[in-house]
Amino acid sequence: MKTNEDVLNIIYKKNNDFMYETDENGAIIVLEEQNHWIQRLFRKIGFKIPKYKKTELDKFGSFILKQVDGEKTVEEIGELLSKEFGEEANPLYERLLLFLNYIDVDCNYIEKIVK
C-alpha cells in the first residue's frame, strides 16, 4: 500500500509517441492520429477527415503537462502549480493526482518512471 509520501515522490515522463503543439497563448493542444482503416478508406474516397484529432487543454492541464519532464516529482509539480495559480488550484493534490492518473492510465500521454 502506498503512503502519501510515496505518491508525492512519483516521477512522470511524457511517452515517446505523445504528440502535441502549443498555441499562441501557451496552451497545449494534444494531437491524436486518426489512422483507423475506416478513416483511411473514407479519406481515399474523398471525405475530409482530419489526420489528427486536436484536443486543447485548459490552463491547468497545459501547465501540468509542461512540468512533466522525467525529473520533477508530483510534489514539486504541485508546488509550482500552487505558486502559479494560488487558491485557484485548490484542492491542489486531489486535482493534480486525478489529472495525472487520467493522462497516464486512460490517455497514455505520460508514464511513471520506476526508480
Order of helices and strands: HEEEHEHHHE
Taking all Cα atoms into account, the compactness measure Rg is 17 Å
Number of helical runs?
5
Largest sheet: 3 strands, antiparallel
Q: How does the helix and strand content classify structurally?
A: alpha+beta
Could you tell me the number of beta strands?
5
The coarse silhouette is: elongated
Beta-strand percent range: 15-25%
User: How far apart, in Å, are the first and last alpha carbons?
Assistant: 17 Å
The share of residues in helices is 40-55%
In the predicted model, the low-confidence regions spanning at least 5 consecutive residues are none
Q: Strand sequence of the main sheet, in spatial order?
A: 2-3-4
- How would you state the average pLDDT, rounded? 93
SSE map:
Blueprint: H1 4-8, E1 11-14, E2 19-22, E3 28-33, H2 37-44, E4 52-56, H3 59-67, H4 74-85, H5 92-106, E5 110-113
Antiparallel strand pairs: 1-5, 2-3, 3-4
Helix pairs in contact: 4-5
Describe the structure concisely:
The protein has helices at residues 4-8, 37-44, 59-67, 74-85, 92-106, and strands at residues 11-14, 19-22, 28-33, 52-56, 110-113. With 115 residues, it is of the alpha+beta class.
Notes on the structure:
- The chain contains 5 helices and 5 strands; from the N terminus they run αβββαβαααβ.
- The model has no long low-confidence stretch (mean pLDDT 93).
- A 3-stranded antiparallel sheet has the order 2-3-4, covered by helices on one side.
- The two termini are 17 Å apart.
- With 115 residues, the protein is of the alpha+beta class.
